[in-house]
Amino acid sequence: MSDTSLNPQATDHVPAVPVEVLRGTVQEQWIDYNGHLNAGYYLVAFDDAIAPWMDFIGLGTAHREVRDITTFSAENHITYVREIGPDEPFVISVQMLGFDRKRIHAFQTMTQTREDYLVATCEVMSLHIDGPTRRVGLMADEPYRRLGEIWEAHRHLPLPPQVGHAISIRSSVEALRHPDLA
Prior knowledge:
Elements: E1 4-5, E2 19-25, H1 39-48, H2 50-57, H3 61-67, E3 69-80, E4 89-99, E5 103-112, E6 117-130, E7 135-136, H4 141-154, H5 172-177
Antiparallel strand pairs: 1-2, 2-4, 3-6, 4-5, 5-6, 6-7
């Protein structure tokens, strides 16, 4: 992707709003037959935004190399809100939802910046992984303290309505009784 990391660092002030981590422009080759961003590229963009988010947390490249750790995505839930087309600019921001020594629960938003509308969201659970064992392990004190700083700034933010959504279809019997589906 030709996205640009906004290069937030663990030493930066923590804003009491979601942290802008990545700016980009939708490329023509990312467009599907419907004329908008292909579903797969949303996840690519959200995943590309994880690296600058980890830099902001203090779990960036230098920390990973020194500590021989990494992070894995355990789960992602994307919600598509509104179409975005070719050559449209966007920004991805991250709000912390929770954390412990092994996990980081975050919420990403993709916003079209020319007209300022929400395009998509991605709720993500990241796991802190010990490099040699490739298993979940405890993070060091420095990033854990940084997560505490971020949590203090973000814990009062409203919970986005897309958080915790499940995908399901009512049972056939229940659907048959529903007036809109009859």
